[in-house]
């Protein structure tokens, strides 16, 4: 497996761990019979964790597809790996700023992550201009 493919797996684990962590921290209040109970997410930190989790679900398909498309179309693997690792780092920072209630920085990081995804996605179209 390539580094980029491991980063896809890492992105999956990141968005799953975002919500799992808040459920683990507040396990006495979490009712597994009602996992989507809005009352569980009544405090600010739990709401932000849920928001970060949901955003992870929203961004994951595009990232995974972009990586697989770039690899399938024989784009430079080293560049795919570097951008995928950078995306994962940006997503981790995004989650931390989401949990830390830093909305402006969070939006900047989201935009950077989206730009990285676009770069990976359009890499096959631009590969003749890229270093080997």
What tags apply to this protein structure?
MAPEG-like_dom_sf; transmembrane helix; transmembrane; 132 residues; MAPEG family protein; mainly alpha; 5 helices
Shape: elongated
What is the chain-wise order of helices and strands? HHHHH
Number of helices: 5
List low-pLDDT spans. Answer: none
Helical content stands at over 70%
Strand content: under 5%
Structural class based on helices, strands and sheet pairing: mainly alpha
User: Please, what is the average pLDDT?
Assistant: 92
Task: Give the termini distance in whole angstroms.
Answer: 20 Å
Radius of gyration, CA atoms, in whole angstroms: 17 Å
Give the beta-strand count.
0
Largest sheet: none
Give the SSE layout.
Layout: H1 3-25, H2 44-72, H3 77-99, H4 103-121, H5 123-126
Helix pairs in contact: 1-2, 1-3, 2-3, 2-4, 3-4
Describe the structure.
Helices cover 74% and strands 0% of the residues. The chain is elongated and about 55 Å long. The relative contact order is 0.17. Its main location: membrane.
In short:
74% of the residues lie in helices and 0% in strands. It is an all-alpha fold.
């Amino acid at each position: 497996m390539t580094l980029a493919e491991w980063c896809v797996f890492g992105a999956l684990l990141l968005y799953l761990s975002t919500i799992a962590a808040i459920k683990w921290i507040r396990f006495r209040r979490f009712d597994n019979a009602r996992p989507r109970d809005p009352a569980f997410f009544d405090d600010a930190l739990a709401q932000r964790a849920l928001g970060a989790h949901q955003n992870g679900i929203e961004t994951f398909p595009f990232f995974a597809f972009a990586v697989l498309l770039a690899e399938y179309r024989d784009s430079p693997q080293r560049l795919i790996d570097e951008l995928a690792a950078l995306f994962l780092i940006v997503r981790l920072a995004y989650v931390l700023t989401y949990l830390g209630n830093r909305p402006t920085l969070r939006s900047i990081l989201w935009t950077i992550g989206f730009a990285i995804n676009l770069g990976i996605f359009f890499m096959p179209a631009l590969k003749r201009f890229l270093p080997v």
